[in-house]
């Protein structure tokens, strides 16, 4: 019986295991890469902050009567120049907030910030019946704003700014007006490139 085992081709249990070590190495490498990508994704998501501006119970009249649901207004931002406003509706508050966060990230904008954490130039925004006036401020001024506009500016990473709400007192309209105002900001470099001149020519 021992002779029969020794005479088997391929050497018994060792046969066919020539590339098994390479396969194991590739699997380990793939697991490490997936862990790194998951860690990077979670770190990127942890940079975003979420703030609920308003939660209201809304009623929709349907054929069978009234259907109750919740509407959540959410502002998300990473305090590094990215901010967004979203609205979510659901039968419960938790799902409404989740939908609002997803909507806000989907419509996030980039805000150009100066070295003093302010904006490059004055700007105005409109959202429905609300109007927002935003002006840059010197270092040490802080965020002088109120309501939903203050939340949008803080999550965008603005530290020194002056803002005033005009017209409507609706949190959603004011937040959208602030986003509209911030989306119109342009840096001096962007203006110079659009005109086809250098920065020195722009200031002279």
Automatic annotation (TrEMBL):
Cellular-component GO terms for this entry: ribosome
Limits of the S5 DRBM domain: 48-111
Region (Disordered): 1-48
PANTHER family (UniProt xref): MITOCHONDRIAL RIBOSOMAL PROTEIN S5
Function: Located at the back of the 30S subunit body where it stabilizes the conformation of the head with respect to the body. With S4 and S12 plays an important role in translational accuracy.
Self-association and partners: Part of the 30S ribosomal subunit. Contacts proteins S4 and S8.
Name under which the protein is recorded: Small ribosomal subunit protein uS5
Organism: Phormidium tenue FACHB-1050
Gene behind this protein: rpsE
């Amino acid at each position: 019986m021992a002779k029969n085992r020794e005479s088997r081709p391929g050497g018994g249990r060792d046969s066919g295991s020539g590339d098994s070590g390479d396969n194991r190495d590739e699997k380990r490498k793939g697991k490490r890469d997936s862990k790194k990508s998951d860690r990077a994704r979670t770190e990127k998501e942890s940079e975003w902050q979420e703030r609920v501006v308003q939660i209201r119970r809304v009623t929709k009249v349907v054929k069978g009567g009234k259907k109750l649901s919740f509407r959540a207004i959410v502002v998300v931002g990473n305090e590094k120049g990215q901010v967004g406003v979203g609205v979510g509706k659901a039968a419960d508050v938790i799902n409404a907030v989740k939908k609002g966060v997803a909507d806000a990230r989907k419509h996030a904008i980039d805000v150009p910030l100066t070295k003093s954490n302010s904006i490059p130039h004055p700007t105005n925004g409109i959202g429905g019946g609300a109007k927002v006036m935003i002006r840059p401020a010197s270092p040490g001024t802080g965020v002088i704003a109120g309501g939903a506009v203050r939340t949008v500016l803080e999550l965008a990473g603005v530290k020194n700014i002056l803002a005033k709400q005009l017209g409507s007192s609706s949190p959603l309209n004011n937040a959208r007006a602030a986003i509209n105002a911030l989306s119109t900001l342009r840096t001096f470099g962007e203006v110079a490139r659009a005109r086809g001149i250098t920065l020195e020519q722009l200031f002279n």
